[in-house]
Amino acid sequence: MSSRIGQVAGHLNYPKGMLEGQVAIITGSGQGIGAETAKVFAKEGAKVVVSDIDGTKADKTAKEINAAGGSAIAVAGDMLDDKYLVELVKKTAEFGNGKIHIIVNNAGYTWDGVIHKTTDKQWDTILALHCGAPFKLIRAAAPYFRVKDGEVRNIINISSTSGLHGNAGQANYALAKAGVVGLTKTIAKEWGPAFGVRANTVAFGYILTRLTGAKEAGEAVTLPDGTKVALGIPGKPTGPPKAEDNADIPLRRPGTATEAALAVLAVASPLFGYVTGQTISVTGGRNI
Predict the structure, then answer these.
(1) Which residues have a catalytic role annotated?
(2) Who is most buried in 10, 126, 196, 266, counting CB within 10 A?
(3) DSSP codes, 229-243
């Protein structure tokens, strides 16, 4: 057994958790899948940096983690602000005593529109948020990943079945989410050979979040310039989902934010120690 495999095997039995001693940035972790990911990472021993544009929600997530015996700080800011990305990396490295081990690029939202009605602002904003921001964050954190200290490092980019299969009304989102798949593979090929960095994509299907709720519920994102972007699916039936509503999903139900977070944890953990450059679909079997 090689020393590296031996370390992984031993880590699986470590009583303090599979991510013990690792420092993780999780973007968009003030709520939803991101918040659940922050909590399960902390439960497995990671020191978590909660990144979100909403400072109140970021603080809430971090406080819940610390109250439960974990270790977290909130660093709030706008992923489209280049200065914030630099600050996020700096504060994470300080929190991690000079080290960063994991980045989960989860932050984002949808701004839907059919092709012939999509504005330049819709197009540019979604591509910047889902492609540009993850790239810039990874680039800013490069000095903490391009190292040879024998410690594991992971980058996990969150995608969607819209990026794998396209989706009507989501040309901008579909392109952006397809783009991160290519980014992931490039990271795996550039940073894997010399530095052992693993990079994978997790592509979600129908997960119960504010992005998949009824648009009529009123969920929205307010941009820095005051523009209000409505979230959700227009005309979606309210109330508990029925099995027939999900006939295209073999498991006949949507996934929960916790189930989504656990999939991200699995990819970050030693259980996936020999998996890199892959796209893991978390869809309940949809699109198989």
Answers:
(1) 173
(2) 126
(3) EE-SBTTPPPSS--G
Residue 171 structure tokens: 């040309």
Question: Do residues 199 and 279 touch, judged by C-beta distance below 8 A?
Answer: no
The closest of 166, 144, 175 to 24, measured between CA atoms, is 144
CA 126 to chain centre: 15
- In tens, the pLDDT along 256-271 reads 999 999 999 999 999 9
**Residue 43: Cβ-neighbour burial (10 angstroms; 0-12, 13-18, 19+):** middle
Residue 16: burial class (beta carbons within 10 Å; 0-12, 13-18, 19+): exposed
Q: Pairing between strand 220-222 and 228-230? A: antiparallel
Over residues 2-21, the mean pLDDT reads 61
87-110: b (≥16 Cβ within 10 Å) or e? ebbebbbebbeebbbbbbbbbbbb
Domain boundaries, the chain: 3-210+253-282
CATH superfamily membership of 3-210+253-282: NAD(P)-binding Rossmann-like Domain (3.40.50.720)
Radius of gyration of the chain (CA): 18
